[in-house]
Please model this.
Amino acid sequence: MRIRTKAWTWVCSAVLAAGLLGVHHSDASAATTQTCGASAYRLSLQSLTGPPRADLTIRITTAMPDCELPETLTAVQVALLPFKRSSAKKFNLDNVPSPGGTATVRIGRVPRHRVVHATVAFGPQIVLAGKARTLLKPDLVLMSVKTVKSILGGKPFYVVAQIRQRTRDVGATATVTVTSAGTALATDTVAVRARRSVVRQIAVTLPTTPGRDQLIVNISGTNPAETSLANNTRRATVEVVEFKVQGSATLVQNFAGYGGQFNHHVYAAISRSVGVTDANVGDMEAKMRALHPEFSRIFFTPVAFTDPDRMQSFIRTVLLAQSTGTTINITWQGGTLSVASGTVQKFADVLTDLVRNRGVTNLRWLTLQNEPNRTKITMEAYEAQYRALDPYISSIRGQVKYMGGDLVRGPDVGAPNQDVWFQYMATHMADILDAYSIHVFWDYWDTQKLVDRLTEVRAIVNALPESGRKPLYVAEYGVRGLRTFNGSPAGDPGVWEDGTPITRTNVSAFQHAWFDLLAARLGYMGTSKWDSYFGKYDNGTQAYYMIGSPQDGWPLYPLYNLVQLMTTTIKRDWRTVNVDSVPDTSRLLAAYVGERDQETVVGLDTAGAQLNTASGVPVGYTIGGLPVSQKVRLVIWNEAGDGARGATQTVTTDANGVVNITVPQQAVFVLTSLPLA
Model:
């Protein structure tokens, strides 16, 4: 409150008299008085104006640790010095609270640049004086708040706040707080200079429950106090999801796609003897073209050099593959390959003829030897075969590249040796090989093996010297069943627990899908299933195909329906991109993006890997990172437990690019932006 002028005069006189008359103290008291006199303190003033008034901040400091800062100012005299047409003005206050030595007093309307003088008294006899030019108060403005449209619950993300101090005299500090549903999620301290802006990234984490959350960002605790709080708050909406497509996180730049082995003997006498004819094989050919395979493999056996029937079947098979549009890998199946035996020259002639004379433009890969690390061939001899062949196919090497490996984990008896083979290829053959390949087979009850094989090989290649790291392919893979059933041999690849051939089951197809999605997630370039259609390779029987025998009308097994769905919604040379997911989930998703931003997401719940019939368990997926407010096609394979592709549905992503779908546990879903029939 105001004090009388006489009282103020008395305070000042008393202080002056004490100094002139030498008021006596004890020795200790005198020392303290001398130490903590006026010279021990410093006064600083700040006069800031803005609607509706000006505030004078009085701050007293000391460098003496034994000197206490006043909690109350006994007297304060404020003088507004003459300014333009305004005359001087004074007023006095007493007992002004000053916690920590700081007091703020209101001094009414004061124009910018008017000088304010203040004299303060505290303690028994301390008087300090100072002056300050009045400046404009700060006004912090929360210009914008930006964040991602969707996030994974439990994982941090950033809220980006742009803050501007729009007045021209002083800077300010403040606290920025992000809240949701009344709970503070994060705080940050900012300092902004006059007429400048700052951008702050504030890390925030939301709970894992899917759904929309409104974030409120607020500026508070501004120092010095600002003119207005009306522009200190903004809001943003974030949607919590379980999976998020990260379109910029490329795993593979030019994905080779999915396909299968073409049996090179399907047109030979060995297959004609079991029912393949020129009259019925056209049905199989049409179904292979409708499959749209993208990366496929064909064996060449040296028997064809002396068996015209085998040679014509091989050539006809390559031409069939060419007609489907698939990228072709030809693999020398086995046997002596050397210049001395003449097989190198003969094989080179076959390859050159395919490219130069028969228009096989899709022949892009050549592999020598099938699963060499389970044979007696040495790594040195393996390398020598590639180097011996290379000069003889120089005319087509611009089109055809070398793929090395076709490795299994190890020999049938003995310790795994794939690591040693990869090391050798990386350090001795990096100059000639352009890619590596592996083979993977597992029993339907042992799905951990499919996970282990893909992850262990990925780790092996990642650990190779950088110059020796090459793109990874899977050139053969498949599911095996029980080898005996009711005490009798069940053939290769075996049967399901009820005696159904494993290739005809939904379980086999589902596990192939699991394998394909995981391979894409781990950065494999492409996969070729063993194998595509009925036919005889040799005198034994292998029935891994997805198109059955001609006696049964070349029937389509569940895997065919699944692969066709994937090859019609995922295109060769698209990118595979990362899909981030909530932790500890059995659900697996992979995403693929085209050069014109076409997008396909495929997903499944690995917990359904042993379900051969329809399940009553619905599985939900909340997926973000998709284009906003866009219609996408949804197709579900095996929704009814029949191994068939379901009808095309249309779903629409919301304003945050999120879609929610529910799929039976035994099913595989595809979301795609591509138009589908």
About this structure: Residues 5-21 form the longest helix (17 residues). The two ends are 85 Å apart (CA to CA).
